[in-house]
Amino acid sequence: MSHRRTGLSRLGRYLTGRWVLVAGLLRSHFPTAVLEALAQADRRLLLDAQGSLRKAQAGPLERDGDVDRAALACLATLKVNEDEGRILAGSLETDRLRGLGVPEVVLTLGSEGARVIAGDVVAEIPPSPTRGEVDPTGAGDSFSLVYLDGRASGLDPAAAGERASEVVAELISRG
C-alpha cells in the first residue's frame, strides 16, 4: 500500500466530529481522494470554495472553475462568495448554483447578506447591522465556521445562515 493511501486511511482516526470544515489555500490542498476519505463514516463536509478555485502553480494567482465534480459530490455544503459563485457556476442564479449538485449552497453577498439554497428552500439572509468602522478581513472564513457550528448544533440551513450573519457582523465591527 502506498504511503499516500496509508495516510488517507489513518485520517479518519483523527476525525471524531460529524461536520468538517474544509478550507485549503489552493486546489491541490484537498484533492478528491482526500475529500472522499474525509466524507467516510457519515461525516458532513462544508467546503469553502476559495482555495478550490486557485490553480496550484508558481507565479501570479490564477483561478478557474475547473473543479473536479466528483469532489463536489462529497460535500454536504458548499460556501461561495459572489465572485467564486460566478466562476464555479457561471452565474449566481439559484438554478445554476443548485446545478453544482451540492445539497446546500451558501452564497455570501458581503454587505448584502447571504443566500442559502438547500433542496427546494431558498433563504435570503438579510445583512446584520454593523457598528463603526468595518474590517471585513476573515468575514467569509468566519461565516463558514459559524454556519457549520450552527448546522452541527441542529439548526436548519436558514437559521444557521442567520446566526452566521449576526456573528460575523459583530466580529467585523470596530465600533
What does this structure look like?
- This protein has 175 residues and is an alpha/beta fold.
- It has a single domain (3-172), classed as UDP-N-acetylmuramoyl-L-alanine:D-glutamate ligase.
- 37% of the residues lie in helices and 17% in strands.
- It is built from seven helices and six strands.
- It has helices at residues 3-11, 32-39, 69-72, 82-89, 94-98, 139-152, 157-172; strands at 19-22, 44-48, 77-81, 104-108, 114-118, 121-125.
- The chain has a six-stranded mixed sheet with strand order 1-2-3-4-5-6, sandwiched between helices.
- A hairpin with a 2-residue loop joins strand 5 (114-118) and strand 6 (121-125).
- Helix 6 runs antiparallel to helix 7.
- The longest helix is centred in the C-terminal third of the chain and has 16 residues, at 157-172.
- It is globular, with a radius of gyration of 16 Å.
CATH H-level superfamily title: Ribokinase
Compressed to H and E, one letter per element, the order equals: HEHEHEHHEEEHH
CATH class designation: Alpha Beta
Mean pLDDT: 89
- Strand-residue proportion: 15-25%
Structural category:
alpha/beta
Number of discrete helical segments: 7
Overall tally of domains: 1
Q: What profile does the largest beta sheet have?
A: 6 strands, mixed
Beta strand count:
6
First-residue to last-residue Cα separation? 56 Å
Strand arrangement, major sheet: 1-2-3-4-5-6
Can you tell me the CATH topology? UDP-N-acetylmuramoyl-L-alanine:D-glutamate ligase
Helix content percent band: 25-40%
CATH architecture: 3-Layer(aba) Sandwich
Q: What oligomeric state best describes the polypeptide chains here? A: single chain
Low-confidence stretches: 1-14
Radius of gyration: 16 Å
Dominant shape: globular
